[in-house]
Amino acid sequence: MDSSTWIGIISICAAALCMAIGAISPALGEARAIQQALSSIAQQPDEAGAISRTLFIGLAMIESIAIYCLVISIILIFANPFWTHVIAKTGGG
Amino acid sequence: MDITPDHLILFRWGFVHLNATIVYTWAVMLLLILAAWAATRKIRLEGPRSRWQNAMEAIVLGIRSQIREVSGREGSNDYIPFIGTLFLFIAASNELHVVPGWHAPTGSLSTTAALAICVAVSVPFFGIRKTGLKKYLHHYLSPVFFMLPIHMISEISRTIALAVRLFGNIMSGSMVVAILLVIAPLFFPVLIQALDLIIGLIQAYIFAILAMVYIAAAVRREDEKPQEQTT
């Protein structure tokens, strides 16, 4: 197999792995955060506003990790720099 | 497939290239300016108010109450122009996704990086204006002087995080719709686009609130100093 095939295979596998692991771990983190926030709201309903605002900010922080993984996967699939380099080097095909 | 609207060139004249990001940013700006002009044209304090004025008052009061919850009561009026503009611009450009053929300018990393750099510049601006230059710079050396690189890294990384978070959310929204149009073109893209509208609004809220949290953290250092000394 030539190098462009290898780059294609490895890019797709890396994108899939990146998205899989990058979706699982923020999901676990967000689940913990939401669980804790819900039990806090259940204990102190008066503080629901402050808790949910902080929860939103924290969720955005956690979720940005998943978004980084998504951006890397999309770059690997749709705008792969190594792929374009090899294609440009071998002159298309 | 294009992942940013930067590559979509709508107009070229000599070496000037107008890409979709710039044109749609101008469209959002024009829309916001027109709406603000229409709302404040017949503004009045007493008597019956126009619908535009009522809507605009509701928006401004909502933004102010959200800012006050983060920054405290005093000085919250200083932040309304900046935070409110950020929120309204991002929310408008995300929600206009209902218009067919719209490319949200926030789906381009250039726009979001520009907004994040605005936040990164405004944090020292408000901090220095409130606490003074010496106290603000002294924060970088606290608690000990070799924390300086860590403070710098945290400022840079949170700026990058702001930019990439907004870009990734909006870009992935339109990309998921494009992929779903290939797989299941009948009904699901509509649902996902409705979800995108919610995500766009939440991201606008989060961007504005995070900017406010960063500014409040820079401004509040003055108040925290005496507490640290007494304890």
Silhouette of chain B: globular
Whole-Å distance between the termini of chain B? 58 Å
The low-confidence runs of chain B, each spanning 5 or more residues with pLDDT under 50, are 225-231
Radius of gyration of chain B: 21 Å
Broad structural category of chain B: mainly alpha
| Residue share in β-strands of chain B | under 5%
Identify the overall geometry of chain A: rod-shaped
- Provide the residue-averaged pLDDT of chain B: 84
User: Count of DSSP helices of chain A?
Assistant: 3
Distance between the termini of chain A: 14 Å
- Give the DSSP E fraction of chain A (strand runs of 2 or more residues): under 5%
Structural class of chain A: mainly alpha
**Count of DSSP-assigned helices of chain B:** 8
Describe it.
The complex is a heterodimer of chains A (93) and B (231). Chain A is built from 3 helices and no strands. Chain A has helices at 3-43, 48-78, 81-90. In chain A, helix 1 runs antiparallel to helix 2. Chain B has helices at residues 20-40, 51-71, 80-95, 109-131, 133-140, 148-183, 188-219, 221-230, and strands spanning 9-13, 16-19. In chain B, helix 3 runs antiparallel to helix 7 and helix 4 (109-131) crosses helix 5 (133-140). The N and C termini of chain B lie far apart (58 Å). The A-B interface holds A 49-50, 53, 56-57, 60-61, 63-64, 67-68, 70-71, 74-75, 78-79 and B 1, 3, 69-70, 161, 164-165, 167-169, 171-172, 175, 202-203, 205-206, 209-210, 213.
Task: Compile the SSE list and pairings.
The complex is a heterodimer of chains A (93) and B (231).
Chain A: H1 3-43, H2 48-78, H3 81-90
Chain B: E1 9-13, E2 16-19, H1 20-40, H2 51-71, H3 80-95, H4 109-131, H5 133-140, H6 148-183, H7 188-219, H8 221-230
Antiparallel strand pairs in B: 1-2
Helix pairs in contact in B: 1-2, 1-3, 2-7, 3-7, 4-5, 4-6, 4-7, 6-7
